[in-house]
């Protein structure tokens, strides 16, 4: 598995290259935002790990640029601990956020969790409709529009994972603990803030009125429920 690490701190780059190479990962490095984008285009990494405070282009600009064409998992590793920085990074398309200083065990766990979220295709996966939005798990596509040309909706790997859990349980309550354990592992069952951020992101992208959700519903204190439109062939005939 190939990981692109972008950070302007040479000591962190060296330490991560040595540690992750010893764990069997193939490492590509970049020291600024422009190098990171160029390396992502040339090397096609399986995962991108980047700092936010880089020269040339900062981390948020890099994430936005990558999300224009790539669904590769993106892990932010930054010294910025403010909630606003985390929200901004996740909002533009990051999949996870680790603050410096960090333990290598936590970092490895986050990498494993992200790689588990890579899409798995199955021809029998369902297609669901949320108003003008169609989500097809088999082709891993989400599009908007009723007639003619359809607009592609870009979702990050983590957004796909959250949505897939709900799609595979239509109309059923999926508890926060179930979602957190499935996506981030059992050590993160208390990280409900992250889950709320991803649900908010999905509502922005999929709901006709994100502030008044019709499909991605919150069950207060328990979890979330997806209520898609019924398929057209389930409609009953008028007598």
What report would you give on this structure?
It is a single chain. Helices cover 38% and strands 20% of the residues. The chain is of the alpha/beta class. It has a 5-stranded parallel β-sheet with strand order 2-1-3-4-5, sandwiched between helices. A 4-stranded antiparallel β-sheet has the order 6-7-8-9, with no helix packed on it. Helix 6 (157-167) crosses helix 8 (192-206).
Topology:
Blueprint: E1 2-6, H1 10-22, E2 26-30, H2 33-43, E3 47-50, H3 59-66, E4 74-78, H4 83-92, E5 96-99, H5 104-116, E6 127-130, E7 133-136, E8 141-144, E9 151-152, H6 157-167, E10 173-175, H7 176-184, H8 192-206, E11 216-219, E12 223-226
Parallel strand pairs: 1-2, 1-3, 3-4, 4-5
Antiparallel strand pairs: 6-7, 7-8, 8-9, 10-12, 11-12
Helix pairs in contact: 2-3, 6-8
Q: According to CATH, what is the class of the largest domain?
A: Alpha Beta
Question: What level of helicity do the residues show?
Answer: 25-40%
Fill in the CATH topology of the largest domain.
Rossmann fold
From the spread of the alpha carbons, the general shape counts as globular
DSSP E strands, number: 12
Beta strand %: 15-25%
Note the run of SSEs as H and E: EHEHEHEHEHEEEEHEHHEE
Please report the number of helical segments.
8
- Please list the strands of the largest sheet in the order they lie side by side: 2-1-3-4-5
Instruction: State mean pLDDT (0 to 100 scale).
Output: 86
The largest sheet, given as strand count, sense and whether it forms a barrel, is: 5 strands, parallel
CATH architecture of the largest domain: 3-Layer(aba) Sandwich
**CATH homologous superfamily identity of the largest domain:** Response regulator
The structural class is alpha/beta
Unreliable stretches, pLDDT < 50, 5 or more residues? 234-239
From the alpha carbons, calculate the radius of gyration and give it in angstroms.
19 Å
């Amino acid at each position: 598995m190939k990981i692109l690490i972008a950070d302007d701190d040479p000591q962190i780059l060296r330490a991560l290259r040595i540690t992750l190479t010893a764990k069997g990962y193939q490492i590509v490095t970049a020291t600024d935002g422009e190098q990171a984008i160029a390396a992502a285009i040339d090397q096609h990494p399986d995962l991108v790990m980047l700092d936010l405070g880089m020269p040339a282009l900062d981390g948020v600009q890099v994430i936005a640029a990558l999300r224009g064409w790539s669904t590769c998992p993106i892990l932010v590793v930054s010294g910025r601990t403010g909630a606003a920085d985390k929200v901004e990074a996740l909002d533009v398309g990051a999949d996870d956020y680790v603050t410096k200083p960090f333990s290598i065990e936590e970092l490895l766990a986050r990498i494993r969790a992200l790689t588990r979220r890579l899409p798995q295709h199955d021809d029998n996966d369902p297609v669901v409709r949320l108003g003008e939005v169609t989500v097809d798990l088999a082709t891993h596509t989400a599009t908007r529009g009723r007639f003619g040309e359809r607009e592609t909706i870009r979702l990050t790997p983590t957004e796909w994972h959250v949505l897939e859990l709900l799609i595979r349980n239509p109309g059923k309550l999926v508890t926060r603990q179930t979602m957190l354990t499935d996506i981030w592992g059992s050590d993160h069952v208390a990280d409900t803030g992250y889950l709320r951020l991803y649900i908010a992101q999905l509502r922005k992208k999929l709901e006709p009125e994100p502030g008044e959700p019709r499909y991605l519903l919150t069950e207060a204190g328990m979890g979330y429920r997806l209520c898609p439109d019924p398929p057209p062939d389930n409609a009953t005939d008028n007598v």
